[in-house]
Design brief:
Number of domains: 4
CATH architecture of the largest domain: 3-Layer(aba) Sandwich
Largest sheet: 5 strands, parallel
Distance between the termini: 52 Å
Low-confidence stretches: 239-254, 444-469
Shape: elongated
Oligomer: single chain
Helix content: 40-55%
Order of helices and strands: EHEHEHEHEHHHHHHHHHHHHHHHHH
Mean pLDDT: 79
Number of strands: 5
CATH topology of the largest domain: Rossmann fold
Strand content: under 5%
CATH class of the largest domain: Alpha Beta
Radius of gyration: 31 Å
């Protein structure tokens, strides 16, 4: 099962959480930055029960939104989790339990309804006061049981509400009512605890049934305050990036993995540059607001898998297994492709010049310039023989004899993925390339196709002529 991260403290102990989710990672009540820090590890789900707020900055709404925008399911219940779920349910955060429902329906409004005074971690966050919401529900149950009159119940609740949350104790409020005091000792149940358990059980069930996928249709808007907080969390956590496909387990030392990669300097440089491109594209997409409609998400998934040569479910299963990934990681792949697509479109005008600069830097430009000039001259001397192959034969020739690749199932998508404006643009270039190679057949010039530099230009393979369909 995918990793579950739960923030709990006074409402449930770590042992309570593990009784329902044995493999869960249980963290202290969440403070500002903690949800973001947890989301960076790409868990299967995050469950927020308790959070700090008084003398320590509370969870930012934006860190929950960041988690959701990156495909991490976030649940909330009982305490701080119920508050944030009420505020963020429209964005995809999942609220669970009676207390959340009371906030969502505006039956409850005040944050202090769930606040308690509690001990620190050394004393297992032991509760030192009772939550107003638990007092309300307990007294209401006592009234329904006939233990206390409606008038006395209302008075007890009014007295409790008038007190500061740190001074609300059910035993003190019921001390003057002997029958009620004894009933509470025997029948008191914390609704907060019940809701928290319900949330954990829901997370486990959703993960088991693969119901945790998040598909946001909105874009996270960046501000200088958010960017500063994000960088601070990254620095403090030592995270290499905010987009790891899966968490690094206790047995996997990311430093050692990077050591192995860096021992191949050129290979590492290529991977690092791709990672940097992905991060920059993601940042640009999130700043500008990339569209995330279902149609675009489905298209991005198809394009991303097609680019990897995956065209069937069996191929997808094998491809994921080969990379030690799960189907849940398809969200990350989809989002990455969508953001790269967005960045490519945004920089469509500037991209050609940038590619030329990169080709200059790699030393490839001079050879390409020479070949382009030879092609221009050769084609200007050719008369139109009317013998150009049909598009299907031209495409077959290119994939079979020039680049030795399998013909893609969607040539229009492939052409856009590989720098062409559209399919007609690709066919135009292929027609010129075929005519050029025909004109060079038997020539002593012997220029190689740039995409088949390892083949002799005068080989039978490079001179192959497509047949018409």
């Amino acid at each position: 099962m995918n990793q579950i991260v739960v923030f709990a403290g006074p409402t449930l102990s770590e042992a309570d959480v593990r009784r329902h989710a044995p493999e869960a990672t249980v963290l202290s009540p969440a403070a500002h930055g903690d949800v973001l820090r947890a989301a960076l590890t790409r868990p299967g789900a995050i469950g927020i029960i308790d959070g700090v707020f008084d003398r320590v900055p509370a969870i930012w709404h934006k860190e929950v939104l960041w988690a959701l925008s990156n495909g991490v399911a976030v649940y909330g219940a009982a305490s701080m989790g119920a508050l944030r779920a009420r505020e963020l349910s429209v964005f995809g955060m999942r609220g669970v339990g009676r207390i959340y429902e009371a906030y969502a329906s505006d039956e409850l409004e005040d944050d202090d309804e769930v606040a308690v005074l509690h001990a620190d971690a050394d004393d297992d966050f032991r509760c030192l006061s009772d939550a107003m919401v638990d007092i309300r529900i307990t007294i209401e149950r006592a009234r329904e049981a006939g233990v206390v009159s409606a008038q006395d119940a209302d008075q007890i609740i009014a007295v409790a509400k008038a007190r500061h949350y740190t001074d609300r104790r059910l035993r003190d409020l019921t001390r003057a009512h002997d029958g009620l005091h004894a009933w509470v000792r025997e029948h008191h149940r914390s609704q907060k605890s019940l809701d928290a358990i319900e949330m954990i059980q829901r997370i486990v069930r959703d993960l088991t049934e693969a119901q945790t996928e998040v598909r946001p249709t909105w874009a996270l808007q960046h501000t200088q305050y958010w960017d500063a907080a994000y960088r601070k969390v990254l620095t403090e956590s030592g995270a290499a990036s905010g987009h790891s496909v899966q968490a690094v387990s206790d047995l996997d030392d990311v430093g050692h993995l990077l050591d192995e990669s860096r021992l191949d300097p050129s290979g590492y440089r290529r991977v690092e540059e791709r990672a940097l491109l992905t991060l920059l594209a993601s940042s640009e997409a999130q700043r500008s607001g990339v569209e995330r409609s279902q149609r675009l998400l489905d298209t991005a998934t198809a394009e991303a898998l097609h680019a990897e040569g995956v065209s069937s479910h069996d191929q997808l299963t094998a491809w994921l297994e080969d990379r030690q990934m799960a189907e849940a990681d398809l969200h990350w792949i989809r989002r990455r492709w969508l953001e790269l697509r967005f960045a490519r479109r945004n920089f469509e005008i500037a991209l050609p010049s940038a590619v030329i600069r990169e080709l200059t830097l790699t030393g490839e430009l001079s050879g390409l310039r020479e070949r382009a000039e030879h092609k221009r001259v050769a084609l200007s001397l050719e008369s139109d023989s009317g013998d150009a192959p049909e598009s299907g034969a031209l495409v077959d020739w290119y994939f079979r004899d020039v680049i030795s690749e399998t013909l893609p199932s969607n040539l229009d998508v492939w052409s856009k993925q590989h720098g062409w404006r559209d399919l007609p643009d690709l066919l135009r270039a292929l027609g010129r390339e075929w005519a050029f190679q025909q004109s060079m057949a038997g020539s002593e010039v012997g220029l190689r196709p740039p995409i088949a530099a390892d083949r002799p230009a005068d080989s039978e393979e490079s001179r192959a002529t497509p047949t018409k369909h």
